[in-house]
Amino acid sequence: MTDITPEQLAKQADVERIKDASNYLRGTLSKSLQDTLTGALAEDDTQLCKYHGIYQQDDRDLRDERRRQKLEPRYQFMVRIRMPGGVCTPTQWLEVDRIANIWCNNSIRLTSRQTVQLHGIVKRNLKKTIAEINAALLSTIAACGDVNRNVMCNPNPQQSRLHAEVYEYTRRISEHLTPRTTAYHEIWLDEELLSSSRQDEEPIYGKRYLPRKFKIAVAIPPSNDVDIFANDLGFIAIAEGDHLLGFNVTAGGGLSMTHGEPETYPRLADVIGYCPKNKTLQVAEEIVKIQRDFGDRSHRKHARFKYTIEDRGIDWLKFELNQRLGWNMEPPRTFVFEHSGDRYGWAEGANDTWHYTLFVQNGRIFDTEVHPMMTGLREIARVHDGDFRLTANQNLMIGQVSSKRKPVIDELLEKYQLSSSGHQTALRLNSMACVAFPTCGLAMAESERYFPSLLDKLDKIVKQAGLADDPILIRMTGCPNGCARSVLAEIGFIGKAPGKYNLYLGGGFYGQRLNKLYRENIGEEQILAELTPILQRYAREREPGQRFGDFVIKAGYVREVSAGRDFHT
Amino acid sequence: MQILLPERSQTPLNDDQYHLLQQFFSTLSPEQAAWVGGYVTGRVAKDLPSLPSAADIADITILVGSQTGNGEALAEQLHSLAAGRGLKTVVKKMGDYKPQQLKAEKNLLVIVSTYGEGEPPDNAKELVDYLFSKRAPTLQQMHFAVLGLGDSGYEFFCKTGIDFDHRLEELGATRIHPRVDCDVDYESSAEAWMDAVLNVLSLRLEANSQTAEPASPSVASSSVYSRKHPFPALLLENIVLNGRGSLKETHHLEFSLEGSGLAYEPGDVLGVYPTNAPDVIDALLQTLHFAGTEWVTLDDNKEGFLYDALFRHYEITAITRPVMQKYALLAGNQKLDQLLQNKQKLNDYLYGREIIDLITDFPIGQLSPQAFIGCLRKLPPRLYSIASSLKQHPDEVHITVAAVRYQAHGRERKGVGSTFLAERIDENAAIPIYIDHNNNFKLPVDPATPIIMIGPGTGIAPFRAFIEEREAVGAPGKNWLFFGDQHFETDFLYQAEWLRYLKNGVLTRMDVAFSRDQQQKIYVQHRMAEHGKELYAWLQEGAHVYVCGDAKCMANDVHQELLNIVAAESGTDNAEDYVANLQKTKRYQRDVY
Ligand code: SRM
Ligand SMILES: Cc1cc2nc3c(=O)[nH]c(=O)nc-3n(C[C@H](O)[C@H](O)[C@H](O)COP(=O)(O)OP(=O)(O)OC[C@H]3O[C@@H](n4cnc5c(N)ncnc54)[C@H](O)[C@@H]3O)c2cc1C
Ligand SMILES: Cc1cc2nc3c(=O)[nH]c(=O)nc-3n(C[C@H](O)[C@H](O)[C@H](O)COP(=O)(O)O)c2cc1C
Ligand code: SF4
Fold first, then answer.
1. What strands, in cross-sheet order, belong to the sheet with A152-153?
2. Is A102 on the interface with B (CB under 8 A)?
3. Nearest residue of chain A to residue B489 (CA atoms)
4. Strands (E), B368-408
5. On the CB side of A282, how many CA atoms lie within 13 Å of its CA?
6. Which of A172, A301, B395, B473 could cross-link B258 (Cys pair, CB 3.0–4.6 Å)?
7. Burial readout B453-463 (b: 16 or more C-beta within 10 A, e: otherwise)
8. What's the average model confidence in pLDDT over B552-558?
9. How many helices (H) and strands (E) does chain A have?
10. Which residues contact A325 (CB under 8 A, 6 or more apart)?
11. Contacts of B239 in chain A (CB under 8 A)
């Protein structure tokens, strides 16, 4: 892309200045790492480290306490591993597990985008940690930052052959859109990839990368577990039986908003057309370039692709895209989504392999007296010869288990009481919460740490109502950024202040519809008081097969949201 | 007026001077003459001329070797007591004293404390070396007496005083009064000694009344409060500086000096009178089968309940040798007596043991409360380096206290003073404190002089005061701070403040060593080594070096490293002299404990 004048740059968001001056994401990171007097990075570097898959955080539980103690905040780092389609080998799992227990807070966090997050790394151990992750043939590059993030793909076990091919495309999209800068290898792996003469180049991104984060997902109907419509760019697999033909392309999804700023709103992606599979990478690249060139670089809150499209219209996008492609996208093919949740337990795949999907509450893997899940999975990884697949709902699939290994895995699942999904309500099994406190710097209310106890109480209510086995999508996020896709839930909670949440109702069961604000700024007592009668009535009055999200609209609790623009109205 | 001068031959003056002086005197009024006399002797007392000559020698020289100022205070006291009796004395600090001058001293009163493991105070080392060297002169002409300051809690009690006493005699000087070794509660015994020596001297020298001498320099605070009359201070703040998960417990305490008139300078020390922990007292009473309500007479002839005596008056934990000896006399226990015979065995026994262990291991049939406290020594005040500057915190004094807690011989132990400060001060209780002026740990007079501060652990305390002071006065001098502790995340004392000083430039640079954040232990001296070149460059620029904190290991390791660096960087083999000279010129000062 063309360079801009300092005057123009001055008008833009500060992050743009930082990127521009960073020499392809180097900044002063190396120097920051050597400063032994603080656990933090230089201010600008706290932006740049994201492109390396690293977030600077601090333990918010200790903030006030440490200020009084005349200590700086308890700075620590979170790293996000790039894991296309969420697939990794048992060996890689064992490495992540080891690293989590040596350098991190003894837990592994499966994310809502099929990656792994490790928390609590202190600065002096950061470089080691990144190096060891790479030694395990994993990477953290571009897991965050204004670039394409981890590409999601449904771990569809029922059709392994199709999945294998779609997964291959997922990997290649991820590959193709990975930044080319050598800064990562220089800073973290001490690899000098640049001869002094050569300069870095970013053929797709340019030196200021994208105006904002960019997210891509690939879905294999009938499952929409990846919540394709929440993504900036989506590919819906169109297949004949087990044979992939191409993809319907979706564009302009994004869920985040800011309390009290109605000009910010969640938006679901539009299906803009169909492309044969051999054009997939070209389409992906051109759409990214369109956002690169037209995205709003002066207001970060208005920089996501969804606003670029809202401002210019979907037809403009199609036109611009066809122009750049040099050929015209075909009209979308028909497809059907049925659900966006996970199916737990054993499922048989092709050529006598099996897959076990394990419920992981809020994606947090750690050991407790009662549930030594981390240990259990370690033991499984030691004997497992297939793969691990992270789901987009923060759960874990033990994939490709040969039928003769199956009993061994079963034994371990039993031994470490991992197969607990059986005794859970369908409500809990369809729940998600974001990380929030104590690590997330943006959290306004608890989420991951609080949600389970709220669910305990809701469990009682649904059991009494006889809904124990009825799946209802319920999600909580600690702020309106919506990391656990709370605005897509049938019951959504969005944090406003400690102990206070906005309650949203009416999301679509397979991710096809945003929910709507029902009650504002309420605490647990009122949450239960509001939900109990609605759930009881749903149990009594629902039509056969009617989803909770559809019911609350039909029953008039909330109006249907047909477009993001109308989310607040 | 007419002043009769002695024969010219008996003066150090040449003819011309002698006659000039005669003429000059003839012009003086009695007042003027008195003033001149006083002024001249005063100046002489202050700054020495290069070589001794009869005229410089006052009748009596008070030679003081002091680290934390107790000795200096006593020297001042002695000086004015003498003046009161019309005796001409000059106070001289061993650090400023030309050893060659000993030959000329007629009456020498030595007041000296002991440091480290029986070492002289820093500023006395040179004199001691000289005294014990072959170059030491014979001192037939000299009459002397020695007052030793010390702490019977240490193995080598008042060793430096003892050494002076023996050596001066060995060199032919005459002892006019037996040496007195003062423990931490030194006032009364010191005063007794002063009276005695002054009596003897008054007889020896025919008292010539008029002398108006200016006190020799030393920060004398205008306050009515002192070690003897401590100020009851309110506690304003008590913060634990160590973050969660730390193995350390370091407290930052702030006291109010409002209305005390107390003043201090960075480098001074705060004295605190603690009380003993109730649970410790109870345990003791139980083992002794005392009630605590027994009526006893204290060593200062006041009377009171036993419990109260044990609460605020006596040291009831640390075992000192005198305590043990007194107890042994009552016990009449062979094993105990044997123990006292064998130094090694005794030390082994004492390590980690307290009085409660002593009375458990060597019980006495019917020991009366009175007899028991007869064995004890007064609870000495605890000293804490002041961590604040009055200029930034008017009417306040801050300290940094490491709570001493440890396990020994099956008992949980806790330091009296540190845990008193850490956990036994309740809201608006008034804590008896005083200021201990330490002239041997002071910022350079010239604010432009660079300083290097080495203070791991609580050794950081005075440097917080230094930096606050230098910021307050806008001192242009560069400041380099070395700090170390166990863990970066939890033990970086005052980190937020240092980061601020680095940002605003008051702190030029800082290097830290956290011993337990990696496999191999790293300490401040290692950081010094890493930057030896710069450190030496700073020294060459005239930087002052300050070391504060642990005396057992740190101070020596740092000293060694300083020698290494100088040796390496100067490329000569006189590092010893170089550093010794730093010490002598007060460019290398230590406050170690
Ligand atoms: C871990 C994860 C939530 C989880 O519980 O799984 C997560 C966690 C965070 N998200 Fe997110 N986001 C995660 C998925 C999402 C999603 C859901 C999705 O992508 O399907 C969204 C909504 C979809 C979207 O992007 O519109 C999401 C929208 C955000 C936003 C708002 C972006 C925007 O357009 O304004 C932020 C804040 C920002 O970027 O400024 C954010 C920022 C963050 C940060 C990094 C907070 C920060 O910027 O300092 C959170 C780290 C918390 C912590 O301590 O770990 N996260 N974040 C998910 C990691 C995904 C991954 O592996 O890459
Ligand atoms: C000039 C000066 C400045 C000082 N500045 C400071 C300062 O800034 N901050 C600070 O915290 N202290 C400072 N100190 C030390 C302080 O005065 C006290 O000595 C310290 O607080 C301990 O006193 P205490 O009454 O708590 O312990 P005490 O009751 O005196 O007991 C201490 C004794 O316990 C024994 N002991 C301690 N630990 C162990 C162990 N692990 N095993 C076996 N025996 C053990 C030792 O015999 C030790 O002498 C300074 C001392 C001096 C002389
Ligand atoms: C670190 C340190 C070490 C000491 N070592 C000894 C010692 O070995 N023997 C001793 O008798 N007194 C020792 N003392 C006690 C001092 O000599 C005593 O406090 C004396 O009153 C100090 O007098 P000054 O202030 O004039 O230096 C030591 C004191 C400190 C702070
Ligand atoms: S939704 Fe908000 S609180 Fe939760 S993880 Fe994302 S940014 Fe943090």
1. A152-153, A216-219, A233-240, A243-251, A270-276
2. no
3. A74
4. 382-385, 396-402, 405-408
5. 16
6. B395
7. bbbbbbbbbbb
8. 96
9. 18, 20
10. A279, A282, A283, A286
11. 68-70
Contacts of A68 in chain B (CB under 8 A): 239
Q: Say if the Cβ atoms of B498 and A37 lie within 8 Å.
A: yes
d(CA A103, CA A69): 25
A202 contact partners, CB below 8 Å, separation of at least 6 = A24, A179, A180, A181, A209
Residue to probe by mutation, ligand 4, list A215, A434, A493, most atoms within 8 Å of CB: A434
Question: What residue owns the CA closest to ligand 2's atom 5?
Answer: B384
In short, whether B384's Cβ falls inside 6 Å of ligand 2 is yes
Look at ligand 2, atom 27, and give the residue with the nearest C-alpha. B415
CA distance B455 to B546: 8
Integer-rounded Cα Rg, in Å, for chain A is: 23
Which percentage of chain B shows pLDDT scores above 90?
76
pTM equals 0.85
What is chain A's mean pLDDT, rounded?
Answer: 95
- Residue A72 contacts B where some CB pair is shorter than 8 Å: yes
B499/A65 touch (CB, cutoff 8 Å), yes or no: no
Question: Span B366-389, mean pLDDT?
Answer: 96
Residues A45, A34: Cα–Cα separation, whole Å: 13
pLDDT above 70 covers what percent of chain A?
99
Evaluate if residue B217 carries a pLDDT over 50: no
Q: Are B591 and B100 in contact (CB under 8 A)?
A: no
Alpha-carbon distance of B345 to B368, in angstroms, equals 28
Q: How far is B405 from chain A (nearest CA, A)?
A: 21
Query: Which range is least confidently modeled, A313-317, B83-87, B400-404, B502-506?
Result: B83-87
Partners of B113 in beta bridges: B149
The pLDDT tens digits of the residues spanning A133-191 come to 999 999 999 999 999 999 999 987 777 789 899 999 999 999 999 999 999 999 999 99
CB B194 within 8 A of CB B162: no
For residue B41, is pLDDT > 60?
Answer: no
Distance B415 CA to ligand 2 centre (A): 7
Query: By the 8 A CB rule, do A263 and A302 touch?
Result: yes
